[in-house]
UniProtKB/TrEMBL annotation:
The name this protein goes by in its record: Calnexin homolog
Sequence ranges of Acidic residues compositional bias: 250-281, 288-297
Polar residues bias spans: 499-510
GO MF assignments: calcium ion binding; carbohydrate binding; unfolded protein binding
Described function: Calcium-binding protein that interacts with newly synthesized monoglucosylated glycoproteins in the endoplasmic reticulum. It may act in assisting protein assembly and/or in the retention within the ER of unassembled protein subunits. It seems to play a major role in the quality control apparatus of the ER by the retention of incorrectly folded proteins.
Disulfide bonds: 108-143
Amino acid sequence: MEERNRIFALLFFVISTSFLQLLTASDYAIFYESFDEPFDGRWILSDKDEYNGVWKHAKSEGHEDYGLLVSEKARKYAIVKELNDAVSLKDESVVLQFETRLQNGLECGGAYIKYLRPQEAGWKPKEFDNDSPYSIMFGPDKCGATNKVHFIFKHKNPKSGEYVEHHLKFPPSIPSDKLSHVYTAILKPDNELQILIDGEENKKANFLSSDDFEPSLIPPKTIPDPEDKKPVDWDEREKIPDPNAVKPDDWDEDAPLEIVDEEAEKPEGWLDDEPEEVDDPEATKPEDWDDEEDGEWEAPKIANPTCEAAPGCGEWKRPMKKNPAYKGKWHAPLIENPAFKGIWKPQDIPNPDYFELKKPDFEPIAAIGIEIWTMQDGILFDNILIAKDDKIAASYRETTWKPKFLVEKEKQKEEDSTTESSGLASIQKKVFDLLYKIADIPFLKAYKLKIHELIEKGESQPNLTVGILVAVVVIVLSIFLRVVFGGKKTPARVVETDTPATEASTSQGDGENEENKEEETSKAPRRRVKRDN
């Protein structure tokens, strides 16, 4: 009774701690969507005709937890959720986190989220589409050679006024399984970006570094002058033909590459009067052949069988050989070009769009949108979070994602184990089928019954497969060696895997008895062996 009370107390403590942890985290979460309730009325579907994919409020496979489900293949999807207040990405940390589960895998499609700018930037929820302005795009994308977790941010150039997309270089790849995974992007005030997958850091970058983003957030100080033109007399040839070179007098440009080998002799036995091909004597004219419509029928040709034993048939001709006098077309040798000036390139000028920046000037986030095109269904979005501290995001990972992931991972291990077992069973069946065929070989006739007994034992005890295979190989080799080197034709002794060696061996002194046993075995009726297909 006391033990049961202790267990209940421990469970109560764990559940209470998790609940309080999540409750405390909720107080500091800027935005959180669990999809525990239907999204109708809270999320807005795009009215654009091209976005005809149907979103569903559905359970994650094997769980009671709900999410936002991509329900149809080969469709475009667009849905958006407006935030109560815009989220600033300046001066303090911001954490973007969400879960996705690719329940049917992902061959070609996206599973990312767009963090949209305020509607003053020129978009409306009902008209949400690919061109709607966003501040950050983050999440999995895969198609063809593309397999990465995107992180793209749009930044306004203060000189030109244009918004430029900056893509994270060398982003992490997407997990290739069908389990729930949580993606986290941590934007820090010191310009650092961290990308986590399942709580583990997979990428670290600096927003101001040209090594981490393409194109670089800060433009180059200089650019090639677009107005600069290459001078007409600019010579980029490093080497030129020697103008003083003269073709040698003995250089014959007309000499052929190959000539007839005059030293070749016709092989002895060459059949000059035999054609290389003859009419197929077994071919017959088709019954529906019409000479008037199809023309005169001719039998198809086959290789002349008379020529098979001869070195060749038909008219013999001397073979060709490489012409030792061949030199080809003459070209003057190359020399250094005295007028060479190098490869021309325009001169650099100050970049009119250059600016200096100590921190990115991110646009605020006013809405969360999912705008994707995918060939797969079964993509499930869940637990979308915006927070100010990674500890908050970590608490959500611990309480919402991790329990599901552990269950899914354990189930996957069981499925993988079952697959491996069935694969092994398939291999064993092929081995036994091969052994049955070996037993049917004529010179093993006297041993067929024994081999069948071994195979049946292996089929009933699959762990003996290797031993059975070795035993049959021993039998075959023993008989083969007797046939090749001669000797007394006595049945080979078979060492069974579950029989001690002393019982397997017999008295070798009574040769007459062994011959009698062999005769009795050969006369005994063969047992019909049932085999499962």
